[in-house]
Amino acid sequence: MASFKCDIVTPAEKLLTTEAEMVVVPGVEGEMGFLAGHAPLVSALADGEIRLTPAGGGAVQRFEVKGGYVQVTGDKVIILADSAQPVAA
After folding, report:
1. Contact of 41 with 23, CB cutoff 8 Å
2. Can you list the domains of the chain with their CATH numbers?
3. What is the spatial distance between Cα 8 and Cα 30, in angstroms, rounded to a whole number?
4. Which DSSP letter does residue 2 get?
5. DSSP class of 35
6. Can you name the residues that pair with 16 across neighbouring β-strands?
7. What pTM does this model have?
8. Which residue among 5, 36, 59, 71 is least crowded, i.e. fewest CB within 10 A of its CB?
9. pLDDT average per 10 residues of sequence, the chain (89 residues)
């Protein structure tokens, strides 16, 4: 499956930069999932959980997020969160 770059950024730090196959975020109107080549989009985030499937397989990474925005281009997803932290497996 094709991959894309994903960044999770908070006001305090750049939490993650990785290659992903899929990212699911909590939007204010429900969950949104993104794959490589997704149409450009900017949307507000709700409080909830981000699920990120890394490129090449592996365990899904989970992050708890509190508000913010997501920006999607054809080859990158940027999550600008008010706060975010990894969820223990």
Report:
1. no
2. 4-86 (2.60.15.10)
3. 19
4. -
5. -
6. 8
7. 0.93
8. 59
9. 94 96 96 95 97 93 97 94 91
